[in-house]
Design goal:
Oligomer: single chain
Number of helices: 12
Number of domains: 2
Strand content: 15-25%
CATH topology of the largest domain: BirA Bifunctional Protein, domain 2
Number of strands: 9
Length: 339
Amino acid sequence: MKEKLEQIRREALKKLQETQDLNTLNEIRVSILGKKGELTSIMKGMKDLSPEERPQFGQMVNDVRKNIEEILNETKQALEDAALEKKLKKEVIDVTLPAKKSKIGHKHPNTIALEEIERIFIGMGYEVVEGPEVEYDYYNFEALNIPANHPAKDEQDTFYVNSDIVLRTQTSPIQVRTMEKGKLPIRMIAPGRVFRSDEVDATHSPSFHQIEGMVIDKNVTFADLKGTLQQFAKEMFGEDTKIKFRPHHFPFTEPSAEVDVSCFKCGGKGCRFCKGEGWIEILGCGMVHPHVLEMSNIDPNEYSGFAFGLGLERIALLKYEIDDMRLLYENDIRFLEQF
């Protein structure tokens, strides 16, 4: 028995010296000290010893167990230290290296311009309203005083889904939908994406954005329209900005006008930016046509209103002095980071 115990101890120490990882170390511990281990098995032979030999044998087994456990713990500690050192070397951090900077998203020029326009009109008591991009022909044309075979339909080069459904060419249908609800008075702007069959170039795109506004109330006059647009121009382009109205024609409004602002680059003196004219066209507007009010069940004898529409991209191009509309859609980070 003594020789067998000594043999178990020698073999255990040899295995412990050769082991290189904690998993193997645990397997050695179980095979020697576990419930079915070698020391446990040899203890079963005590029943064959005389009463006088049993205490001595038990002491020998305990000594061997204690010796093996001490070596096991030392080996375990050494392997853990080695594993930690290896991990630290692998995960070393060079504090002298420059830090990694997190890239934070940046607002698009269109978004910056839109938020500024919304801020201005909300400050004047307007509500921001949205509507569907796929629209009925009725709301896109007929309810805006553009009946079938009207020349304006051809001028807008519409994308038709079928004879009754189109991709909206303007955000004016939102105005009609708002009027139909019958909640008066109305003070609203309608921003959104619109679609026209245009060739892509520096100033045109088949998909772009418009912002249209409308006020419907009692005793609304052209003077109210002019005052509103004057305030918008001053807040958008600078306090010294002036506006000029030129007669025009829109089916939705009567009378109608195109609106120019004094060049904020040269102060109206004439420069390359305004092509020497001192004025820059920014939007169209007019008093809402009585027939449009009637089609939305609003009495034109009691209520009147004005409407205006501007291109978001045009405002962004002017405000940030961008000379090519295509730059807004190319997602070139070198361009976008400038705003």
